[in-house]
Amino acid sequence: MLKYVILGSGFAFAAAVQPGPLMAFLLSRVSISGWRRTLPAAFAPVISDGPIAVLAVLVLDRFAGGFEPILKAAGGILLLYFAGSTLVAWRREKTGTASEPPSAPQTLFQAVAVNLVNPGPYLGWSLVLGPLTIEAWRLSYGYAITLVTSFYVTMVLSLSLIIVLFGTTSLLGLQGRRVLMLASSAALAGIGIYQLFSALD
Asked: pTM of the prediction?
């Protein structure tokens, strides 16, 4: 049992702290909305990974080569859109015409959308978590449940901590928040462009 707790928690922590589309999106939303409105987005993997797990285990293992470029391209376009919206929010804040930031449910929905077109969870489930879950299930369904539960509890806690830590940039004042918004817009755009180009490889 302990083995699957360690495996699930370790993989989740490694996945949560890696730079990527979801991390860049969370940084963007914290800079715009603050950590309290962004915190529900930590649950995005729990919501999005149900269909991802089914696709990864049943479909992607056979068609990963053709499906991954489509995901990368779709994710790149979505990230460029969010980069643009973050840049617009930065410009409005700079000119003193900032609009109402996205609500917590809107941010959660957008985070789920980012995760659904992010190849990372699909690859993670098809290459690591899927095989581990199948292995654990063959030994005991309790082991499989422990593995998956450990993974998502650690994932949500890790993302929540990251969001709160990002939120402490508010201590830097308005100027610090503007710098963070500009940096997160650039990060979203950079990852989006990278995903579009890597989809063509």
From this structure: 0.72
